[in-house]
Amino acid sequence: MKLIPVLGLLVLFQIGRSQSVDSSNYYEKMTHAGTLNWLRVSEAVPIIIDELEKNGYGYSGIDIGRLMRIDSFQYLVITVSYGDQFGFIFRQGHGIPVKRSDRYYYSHDDQSQFQYVQVESELDTAYRYIQVKKIPRNIFLLDERCYWYEFDTSGKNSFPVSKEVISNILRADIRERLKHVGGK
Q: Residues of 29-51 as b/e, b for ≥16 C-beta within 10 angstroms?
């Protein structure tokens, strides 16, 4: 008789686990019923810093907006770095429709094969696009396009991919990248 309640709890646990939203399934959880938004760099930076601290990297070694020379001709602005050991670039910009293929480069341990376009602006609002042909191995790309969520402006409805859920997916992506630098 005691086996039935335990079995019921196991079934509920498995159902709850199968419905959890993570980086492997969140594109399938989009309802198309809410307003779509993305985490912006101003929201991502505190999350990156928090994950660095939680993984044992001291606050005093964390830099924001560090300019890194990657060769004799090119510089790269690193969104958040830990000294000269490693850093994260939060690539800004998004579009519709959202596509699972936007996460393509997350499936590669070596992101150095990817190109990156950095925008340089001048005081007179002129823009220059600088193509970085090879990202250093210790710099990790995080792409705003991948951190979308749905919400209801009235606050009455909740959605599977909420701002909290997508923030947790960003955290998981950061932790995964930290493994490549010997995460503490």
A: ebeeebebebbeeebbbebbbeb
Q: What tokens appear for 3 in the block? A: 């086996």
Cβ count within 10 A of residue 120: 11
Q: Where are the domains of the chain?
A: 20-181
pLDDT per residue as tens digits for the range 127-182: 887 888 778 888 899 999 999 999 998 877 789 999 999 999 999 999 999 998 87
Write the CA distances from 164 to 17, 94, 150, 161, integer angstroms. Answer: 17, 19, 10, 8
Cross-strand partners of 176: none
pLDDT at 157: 79
**Contact in structure between 75 and 92 (CB atoms under 8 Å):** no
Residue 69 has phi, psi (to 5 degrees) of -80, 125
Q: What is the pTM of this model?
A: 0.82
The answer to whether the beta carbons of residues 41 and 169 sit under 8 Å apart is: no
As beta bridge partners, residue 88 has 80, 140
Could you tell me which of 142, 139, 135, 138 has the C-alpha nearest to residue 170? 142
